[in-house]
Design brief:
single chain, 135 residues, mainly beta, four-stranded antiparallel beta sheet, 2 helices, elongated
Length: 135
Protein backbone atom coordinates (compact mmCIF):
# COMPACT_ATOMS: atom_id res chain seq x y z
CA UNK A 1 0.00 0.00 0.00
CA UNK A 2 2.80 2.39 0.90
CA UNK A 3 4.70 1.58 -2.34
CA UNK A 4 1.51 2.17 -4.33
CA UNK A 5 1.04 5.53 -2.61
CA UNK A 6 4.64 6.64 -3.24
CA UNK A 7 4.49 5.58 -6.90
CA UNK A 8 1.28 7.56 -7.31
CA UNK A 9 2.97 10.62 -5.79
CA UNK A 10 5.79 10.24 -8.33
CA UNK A 11 3.24 10.11 -11.17
CA UNK A 12 1.45 13.22 -9.84
CA UNK A 13 4.62 15.11 -8.98
CA UNK A 14 3.43 18.33 -10.66
CA UNK A 15 0.11 18.47 -8.79
CA UNK A 16 -0.20 16.37 -5.61
CA UNK A 17 -3.91 17.18 -5.27
CA UNK A 18 -4.53 14.55 -7.96
CA UNK A 19 -3.23 11.80 -5.67
CA UNK A 20 -6.60 11.70 -3.90
CA UNK A 21 -8.30 10.90 -7.23
CA UNK A 22 -6.42 7.59 -7.38
CA UNK A 23 -7.29 6.56 -3.82
CA UNK A 24 -10.81 8.04 -3.62
CA UNK A 25 -10.42 9.26 -0.07
CA UNK A 26 -10.91 12.54 1.77
CA UNK A 27 -7.92 12.02 4.07
CA UNK A 28 -5.16 12.31 1.46
CA UNK A 29 -4.81 15.95 0.52
CA UNK A 30 -1.80 18.14 -0.14
CA UNK A 31 -2.72 21.53 1.33
CA UNK A 32 -5.84 21.22 3.48
CA UNK A 33 -6.88 18.37 5.72
CA UNK A 34 -10.39 16.96 5.79
CA UNK A 35 -12.58 18.58 8.43
CA UNK A 36 -12.89 15.49 10.64
CA UNK A 37 -9.31 14.25 10.22
CA UNK A 38 -7.02 14.51 13.25
CA UNK A 39 -3.24 14.78 13.02
CA UNK A 40 -0.88 13.14 15.53
CA UNK A 41 -1.28 14.63 19.04
CA UNK A 42 -4.83 15.86 18.22
CA UNK A 43 -7.79 14.37 20.07
CA UNK A 44 -11.53 14.96 19.84
CA UNK A 45 -13.01 14.62 23.31
CA UNK A 46 -16.74 14.43 24.02
CA UNK A 47 -17.92 15.00 27.60
CA UNK A 48 -21.59 14.53 28.41
CA UNK A 49 -23.44 17.31 30.24
CA UNK A 50 -22.66 17.43 33.96
CA UNK A 51 -19.91 14.80 33.76
CA UNK A 52 -16.23 14.95 34.81
CA UNK A 53 -14.23 12.70 32.49
CA UNK A 54 -10.71 11.30 32.74
CA UNK A 55 -9.25 10.84 29.24
CA UNK A 56 -6.00 8.82 29.08
CA UNK A 57 -5.50 9.19 25.30
CA UNK A 58 -3.50 12.46 25.22
CA UNK A 59 0.17 11.66 25.85
CA UNK A 60 2.02 14.64 27.34
CA UNK A 61 4.91 15.75 29.49
CA UNK A 62 4.42 18.39 32.18
CA UNK A 63 6.66 20.81 30.23
CA UNK A 64 4.45 20.59 27.09
CA UNK A 65 1.76 23.06 26.06
CA UNK A 66 -1.78 22.31 24.96
CA UNK A 67 -4.33 23.93 22.68
CA UNK A 68 -8.05 23.42 23.28
CA UNK A 69 -10.74 24.40 20.76
CA UNK A 70 -14.32 24.22 22.03
CA UNK A 71 -16.46 22.72 19.25
CA UNK A 72 -19.59 22.02 21.28
CA UNK A 73 -22.60 23.89 22.63
CA UNK A 74 -21.39 24.04 26.22
CA UNK A 75 -18.49 25.43 28.24
CA UNK A 76 -15.98 23.17 29.93
CA UNK A 77 -12.95 22.93 32.20
CA UNK A 78 -9.57 21.23 31.71
CA UNK A 79 -7.24 20.38 34.60
CA UNK A 80 -4.78 17.83 35.96
CA UNK A 81 -5.60 15.67 38.96
CA UNK A 82 -3.83 13.15 41.19
CA UNK A 83 -6.96 10.95 41.33
CA UNK A 84 -8.68 9.49 38.24
CA UNK A 85 -12.22 10.35 39.33
CA UNK A 86 -12.29 13.78 41.03
CA UNK A 87 -15.57 15.12 42.37
CA UNK A 88 -14.69 18.83 42.38
CA UNK A 89 -13.19 21.24 39.85
CA UNK A 90 -10.12 23.00 41.29
CA UNK A 91 -9.54 26.75 41.02
CA UNK A 92 -6.54 26.25 38.70
CA UNK A 93 -8.70 24.62 35.98
CA UNK A 94 -8.79 26.39 32.61
CA UNK A 95 -12.26 27.27 31.38
CA UNK A 96 -12.95 26.94 27.65
CA UNK A 97 -15.97 28.96 26.54
CA UNK A 98 -18.17 28.11 23.55
CA UNK A 99 -16.25 28.70 20.30
CA UNK A 100 -13.10 29.73 22.16
CA UNK A 101 -9.56 28.47 21.56
CA UNK A 102 -7.03 28.60 24.39
CA UNK A 103 -3.35 27.72 24.51
CA UNK A 104 -1.49 27.20 27.79
CA UNK A 105 1.27 25.11 29.37
CA UNK A 106 0.31 22.04 31.38
CA UNK A 107 2.04 23.67 34.35
CA UNK A 108 -0.88 26.15 34.52
CA UNK A 109 -3.48 23.42 35.15
CA UNK A 110 -1.66 21.24 37.66
CA UNK A 111 1.59 20.06 39.18
CA UNK A 112 4.07 17.57 37.75
CA UNK A 113 2.87 14.90 40.21
CA UNK A 114 -0.66 14.94 38.79
CA UNK A 115 -0.95 12.47 35.92
CA UNK A 116 -4.67 12.40 35.12
CA UNK A 117 -5.98 14.79 32.46
CA UNK A 118 -9.55 15.71 33.36
CA UNK A 119 -12.28 17.34 31.24
CA UNK A 120 -15.50 18.61 32.81
CA UNK A 121 -18.70 19.87 31.21
CA UNK A 122 -19.78 23.13 32.86
CA UNK A 123 -22.95 24.29 31.05
CA UNK A 124 -26.11 22.64 32.46
CA UNK A 125 -27.77 20.37 29.89
CA UNK A 126 -25.09 20.85 27.19
CA UNK A 127 -22.27 18.55 26.18
CA UNK A 128 -18.65 19.72 26.02
CA UNK A 129 -16.84 18.85 22.77
CA UNK A 130 -13.22 19.88 22.57
CA UNK A 131 -10.47 19.38 20.02
CA UNK A 132 -7.40 18.96 22.22
CA UNK A 133 -3.86 19.25 20.83
CA UNK A 134 -0.60 18.54 22.67
CA UNK A 135 2.07 20.94 21.43
Amino acid sequence: MRLCYFNTCILCNEDLTKVADFFKTEIIDSLDKASDYLYINEYLIHVLAGIIKNDPRPIFKHADKFKAENKGKGDGYIFLSDVPNPTVIPARAKKVLIGETIEAPFADIGSNTEYYLIFAAATPGEDFDVKFTVI
